[in-house]
Amino acid sequence: MCARHAMAGGGVQHTAEGGGWVWFVWDGGGRPVATSARAYERHATCRASYERFRALLAALDPAGPELWGES
Known about the structure:
By secondary structure, the protein is α+β, with helices and mostly antiparallel strands. It has helices at 43-59, 65-68; strands spanning 9-14, 21-26, 32-35.
C-alpha cells in the first residue's frame, strides 16, 4: 500500500448509518484497502485524519528496515 499510495484514491463520506463521517482509501482497481477505525462527528476532523493518513503513506518507505526489521 505504501509503495502504491500515489495510485490510490479515497475520500470522506457519511457512515452507512448516517450518524457521522468515515474516510476510506481504495486501490487502483477500486477495491477498499483502508478505512478509518471509527466514525467522526465532524467532517473537518475526519478530513484532517484522512489527510494525515495519506501523508503518512507517502512518507513511509515500504523497504525500510525501520518498519519491518532487518530480517
